[in-house]
Amino acid sequence: xxxxxxxxxxxxxxxxxxxxxxxxxxxxxxxxxxxxxxxxxxxxxxxxxxxxxxxxxxxxxxxxxxxxxxxxxxxxxxxxxxxxxxxxxxxxxxxxxxxxxxxxxxxxxxxxxxxxxxxxxxxxxxxxxxxxxxxxxxxxxxxxxxxxxxxxxxxxxxxxxxxxxxxxxxxxxxxxxxxxxxxxxxxxxxxxxxxxxxxxxxxxxxxxxxxxxxxxxxxxxxxxxxxx
Length: 228
Known about the structure:
Elements: H1 8-20, H2 23-30, H3 34-48, E1 53-55, E2 60-62, H4 64-88, E3 94-100, H5 102-119, E4 123-129, H6 132-140, E5 146-147, E6 184-188, H7 194-205, E7 210-215, H8 219-227
Parallel strand pairs: 3-4, 3-5, 6-7
Antiparallel strand pairs: 1-2
GO molecular function, one term: DNA binding
Pfam family, one: HTH_1
Keywords: DNA-binding, Transcription, Transcription regulation
């Protein structure tokens, strides 16, 4: 016989605190008071049968039980919101802030925004473009509700959901002839970009010398440099 029920709002509060790492910032994102957030966590801990968070003056971290609960309820929360959206349909209203890396912005604007606007005309989707590492930080601080980010393969985390795998390729003008010992002229993304990290690791493994022609967070700037 079931003796306890997981309240979806308690789970949502728990996920916000786990993702952001601070009660005050999570409370701001959830439009609740810090005291209300604390009560939600206490109620969820009572149901879970143990402490979910380690608390100190700087931030909070997950206990072993908290990590288990976060992983176990991620799909539950996603399914709940998806079912609710299907039931409510066009009655949904509000604003969503979505972060998108520059390299995916054109696809989102051209292919996804029109479909989203048609399905939920009363929901305003606000896009913000930035490098993936910046978007992750903004989500963690509660500045963005969600974001599409690129990260190296093999680095999953409980607060992310896998969407698609990409395979970067080398692109350059066919007319340029370089010898094995010639420095390779590169247009590269800004530091902390996963594509840049993969590129530099590959070049290092192969002992190839490089010459940086352009370093920029803009995908369009890099494309223009390669095409020049």
